[in-house]
Amino acid sequence: MAIDAGEIAALAGAAFVGSVIFGITGFGSALITVPFASHFMPLTFVLALFVLMDLANAFRIGFENPKNAVRAEWTRLIPTILVGNAVGLTLLVNLPRGIATFALGLFVLAFALHSLLRRPGDDRVVHPRWVYVAGFAGGLTSTLFGAGGPPYAMYLSHRGLSKEQYRATLGLATLTSISIRTVAFFGMGFLLDLKVWAYAAFVIPAGLLGIWAAGHVFRRISREGLMRVVAFMLLASGASLVLRALL
Asked: What is the mean pLDDT of the chain?
C-alpha cells in the first residue's frame, strides 16, 4: 500500500479549508474537498475518505452544544432525511445523475440569489410543512451527490432561529445524513480499502483543526452575517452542482 506524502499534504489542506467552511455554516465542505481531490484521486476513494472526515466533523459540531438545537425542528427533519436517504440508495446505481444534479443546482442558485437580493429586515419565516421537502431533498442528495446540506440550510435559515440554534440544529441534521451515508459506503465496499483509512489518519485531524479555527470566527459573526455567508455558500453550491452536471 503506497502512501504519497504530496497527496496527503494536498488532501489535508483541502480538508482544513473545507472544514472551516463547514464549521461556520454547518455544510459545504464537500464543495471544496470532493471536486479538488477528484482531479488526482479516484472518485470512489475521495467519497470514502471525506465521508470519514465529514462524520468526525459532524460529531464535533452536532454535539458541541446540543442544548441549542431546536428539538421540534430536528425531530421533524430526521424522518424525512431517512426517507430521502433510502430513496437515494435505491436510485444510486440507476439514476441519470446529470439532469437531477443540474435541476438541483438551478434551484439552489435561485434560492441563494433570492436570499442575497432580499431587502434588509425581510426575514420571513417559512411554514413548518416545508420540512418535508427539505428533509427529503437533503437525504436524497446527500446519498446521490454528497451534497445534502443546502436543503437543510435553506429551510432552517428561514425558521427564525438564532445563529446558535441554527448551527446546532443543522449540525444534528447533517450528522444524521452523514452517518447513514457512511453505513451505505460500508455496504458498497468503498470503506474496505485500507488506504482510505491510512489517509484518513491525516485528513481527519486536519479537518478537526479547521473546525477549531471556524469556532473562533463563528463567535465573532452576527446572525445577519452568518445568513449572508450561508447564502454565498448556497450560491457556490448551486454553481458547483450545475458545473458538475455540465462537465
From this structure: 81
